[in-house]
Amino acid sequence: MSELADFARLIAGDHGLCVVSTQRADGTIQSSVVNAGVMKHPETGADVVCMVIRGGTRKLANLRARPRMTVVGRAGWHWVTVEGTVWIAGPDDEVPGIDAERLRLLLREVFTAAGGTHDDWDEYDRVMAEDRRAVVFVHPERVYGNA
Fold first, then answer.
1. Quick check: pTM over 0.85?
2. In angstroms, rounded to a whole number, what is the distance separating the alpha carbons of residues 69 and 65?
3. Distance between CA 53 and CA 135 in Å, rounded?
4. Which pLDDT tens digit goes with each residue over 130-142?
5. Residue 91, φ and ψ in degrees, nearest 5
6. Residues 6+ away with beta carbon under 8 Å from 20
7. Which of 86, 39, 30, 79 is nearest to 57 (CA)?
8. What CA–CA distance (Å, rounded) separates 54 from 69?
9. DSSP string covering 26-56
10. Pair 50, 137: CB distance under 8 Å
């Protein structure tokens, strides 16, 4: 059985790229590729998988309706899967205690945890606001793989 630390080590080998899967209303699965990382949840302090997702995406709509996600990270022949419930905070997903300023900083923290860097943080903040980006945290319930 793998652990979240295995997931964190593995995704660093491929720029944090992961396949995420959500469930559509008809029960079928929708998958896409995102950058993800591991960090402490801002409310609970628990280790979670984190990512920034652009507003208006199908995966975000699916997560609002059915708040579960599967995330698969791989590097070469090694892979780790994390399954769990999600927590979303963004301009369209208000959370008590996460005001606009805290969200701005949280978007930066998650981006950095997912391996991102930026030369102009003001520009980053502007694009995140324009895109109505949200942060998504996956609380690991199952972690497995061959890493």
1. yes
2. 12
3. 6
4. 999 999 999 999 9
5. -65, -25
6. 31, 32, 33, 34, 36, 51, 59, 69, 70, 71, 72
7. 30
8. 16
9. TS-EEEEEEE-EEEE-TTT--EEEEEEE-TT
10. yes
